[in-house]
Amino acid sequence: MSMKEKEYKNALRSKRLIRQAFAELMEEKSIDKITVTDIIKRADINRGTFYAHYENARAVIVQIENEIIDKMNELLHEFKYASFMKNAMSILLKIEKFLEDDLDLFTKLINTRESEQFLS
Fold first, then answer.
1. What are the residues whose beta carbons fall under 8 Å from the beta carbon of 23, sequence distance 6 or more?
2. Which phi-psi region, left, alpha or beta, contains residue 81 (left: φ > 0; alpha: ψ -120 to 50)?
3. What residue ranges in the chain does DSSP mark as E strands?
4. What is the pLDDT of residues 48-107, one digit of tens each?
5. How far apart are CA 28 and CA 60, in angstroms?
């Protein structure tokens, strides 16, 4: 494995740990009360690792929201209105799979006090 591939895997792992820690913390406190310190302690990473990927704690939720919006847009882009009724299950199953893959996170996002902004 090349050095570049190893760095890429480490970056993906770090982002996954940060995202998981953030999701867990959302169950315990309001999003606006989650700090970088909370995240790095929960993810068991150092502060430098966090800042290599995010500017602040709010940037984590913004990235998560943007990823969700981008993926939903990608799925809906495949949607052809004229043929939807002929093959509605195809797009609906793709959306279901996407939601199932991160159901806990989506549930937490929707159940937070700040969900109105995300949902709109």
1. 104, 105, 108
2. alpha
3. none
4. 999 999 999 989 988 888 888 888 888 877 776 666 667 778 778 888 888 888 787 777
5. 16
Residue 23's Cβ-count burial label (10 Å; 0-12, 13-18, 19+) is buried
Q: Per-domain residue ranges for the chain?
A: 3-119
With 70 as the cut, is the pLDDT of residue 117 above it?
Answer: no
- What is 3-119's CATH number? 1.10.357.10
pTM over 0.85: no
Residue 35 gets the label, from left (phi > 0), alpha (psi -120 to 50) or beta, of beta
